[in-house]
Specification:
The complex is a heterodimer of chains A (about 290) and B (about 170).
Chain A lengths: L1 E2 L2 H17 L3 H13 L3 H20 L9 E9 L8 H15 L23 E7 L3 E9 L1 H5 L2 E5 L4 H16 L7 E9 L1 H13 L9 H14 L15 E11 L4 E8 L6 E6 L1 E2 L5
Parallel strand pairs in A: 2-3, 6-7
Antiparallel strand pairs in A: 1-10, 2-4, 4-9, 5-8, 6-8
Chain B lengths: L2 E4 L4 H5 L6 E10 L2 H12 L12 E3 L27 H6 L4 E4 L5 H10 L2 E4 L5 H5 L2 E8 L8 E15 L9
Parallel strand pairs in B: 1-2, 2-3, 3-4, 4-5
Antiparallel strand pairs in B: 2-7, 5-7, 6-7
The chains are: A alpha+beta (about 290), B alpha/beta (about 170).
The structure holds iron/sulfur cluster.
Chain lengths: ~290, ~170
């Protein structure tokens, strides 16, 4: 069996959140630069230019890209040969606390949705666990901003509404979000599963690399079609018109009930901060 | 070339602004988000003294990241304005007639803008690092316990905005 020290988890989570808040993923930066070339609206071009400039300032001067350093979302892919003799989720929350305090990130979490009292350290994080073969631990983190999250939606369609129904719902969501979700967006779409699974699929979709391909042909086709249609909506950068409403559409699907067609749309703003790292477990000498 | 304005911004100046125009604002502006808006409106209802004189002043919807020891302010881009829609008309009546935020506003808000000859300005969302460079002074003036939602007085130099709703109620949003 293998393990990873609690201290390593805490330090890694802390560093990942700080890094993600200050340094935008290079692939996303290239995608923004490409969009700037193709954008036909002058104001839109100008906004894209400032977004690119902003990430450079953030990187060079160590200032968070955006003041909303979000809710702390963590996906863990845990190798089955790993064992933890401590509370992994608690260690992650300690890492989040350190990251948000040491990294001068904004604490945006309240204790109860109705009493609205700030927890002062951005905990608790939202942690998802998954198992994979081997002795590795893959950690994905994203400080997910409230603006685009608030514009995300879920609908239980009737199966007969089919692909057209899915497309309509996605387009309507992007249109309704307008400038509020800070476009250009990465649009995460989850179809199938059930109520909560579709939302999770959509969230996982925005965690995908901006230049990857969907797992199957149906989803790949849908991604292409949706991107085309979304960029014809004339929402544009910050909702002020233009051809760059989305940089990418990511569709994740899952089998579902004969009577259901759940669809969830999770919007990711242009400040699409995320990082991942792979830790390798250390062998435990079992002396018992 | 963007027009340059210095705060406070009076009715005559507000009336000279047209939708889509880019403006660079210099001078003092005040930060407030939902929680501070609620407290301001409550204070008006209870006839309490307000933390700053509202007349012709500029409010900016922002909750910055904490400043590092060598910084005036952290990242400080705009938050979504629609959450302030239900509080803004009351504050406009008291003279707080220049508002900076991101995203569209409600019909009721636009009606109040027309009534009060106010103006709504758009800052580009997600430019927290870049916008922080325009802030030269930062003083907490009220509700410090609200943390990032407290009211700050900021001194800005050439803070960039776009006119989104003018005093006639014309808007940049389709
Ligand atoms: S939606 Fe994104 S870019 Fe816009 S303010 Fe929120 S976190 Fe920042």
């Amino acid at each position: 069996m293998y393990t990873i020290k609690r201290k390593t988890i805490i330090e890694t989570i802390k560093d990942l959140f700080i890094d993600s808040a200050y340094n935008l993923d290079e692939k996303l930066v290239s995608s923004l630069k490409k969009a700037k070339q193709s954008e036909t609206n002058n104001l839109g071009k100008n906004i894209l230019d400032r977004i690119i400039d902003n990430q450079e300032i953030a990187r060079n001067d160590d200032i968070p890209l955006c003041q909303d350093t979000g809710v702390s979302v963590v996906f863990l892919e845990i190798g089955r040969e790993l064992i933890f003799d401590y509370d992994l989720e608690e260690a992650i929350n300690v890492g989040v606390r350190r990251g948000y305090i040491d990294g001068f990130l904004r604490k945006s979490i309240v204790k109860h949705p109705l009493n609205r009292i700030n927890t002062l350290d951005n905990t608790p994080a939202i942690v998802h666990f998954n198992f994979i073969p081997g002795n590795k631990l893959i950690i994905h983190v994203a400080p997910k901003g409230g603006g685009s999250e608030n514009m995300s939606r879920l609908k239980m369609l009737s199966p007969s509404e089919g692909e057209a129904g899915v497309i309509d719902f996605v387009l309507d969501t992007v249109k309704k979000a307008g400038g509020k979700a800070c476009p250009p967006l990465i649009v995460g779409v989850g179809i199938g599963g059930n109520f909560e699974k579709s939302a999770l699929l959509a969230k996982q979709a925005i965690f995908r690399s901006i230049d990857d391909n969907a797992k199957n042909e149906v989803d790949q086709k849908l991604e292409k079609l949706l991107l085309e249609k979304i960029n014809k909506l004339n929402v544009g950068p910050m909702g002020l018109g233009g051809t760059t409403t989305a940089l990418a559409v990511k569709v994740n699907s899952f089998p579902c009930h004969i009577a259901s067609l759940p669809v969830a749309v999770n919007l990711q703003c242009h400040s699409a901060r995320k990082k991942e790292v792979t830790l390798i477990g250390k062998k435990i000498n079992n002396t018992n | 070339m963007a027009k340059k304005l210095t705060t406070p911004i009076n009715e005559e100046t507000r009336k000279s602004l047209t939708v889509g125009e880019e403006i660079l604002i210099s001078g003092y502006i005040y930060t407030a988000r939902d929680a501070a808006h609620k407290l301001l409106v409550d204070a008006i209802k209870n006839k309490e003294k307000l933390p700053f004189d509202l007349i012709d002043q500029v409010v900016y919807y922002v909750g910055p990241t904490p400043a590092k020891p060598n910084q005036v302010i952290g990242a400080c881009g705009p938050t979504s304005s629609y959450r302030m829609d239900k509080f803004s008309p009351e504050l406009m009546k008291r003279g707080l007639n220049v508002m900076i935020g991101k995203g569209p506003r409600s019909e009721e808000f636009i009606d109040a803008v027309k009534e009060n000859k106010a103006v709504y300005l758009l800052a580009i969302g997600g430019l927290g690092a870049k916008l922080s460079k325009t802030v030269k002074e930062n003083t907490t003036i009220a509700y410090e316990y609200l943390q990032s939602e407290a009211i700050h007085r900021l001194k800005v130099v050439e803070f960039p905005v776009i006119v989104a709703i003018d005093y006639l109620g014309n808007t940049i949003f389709q």
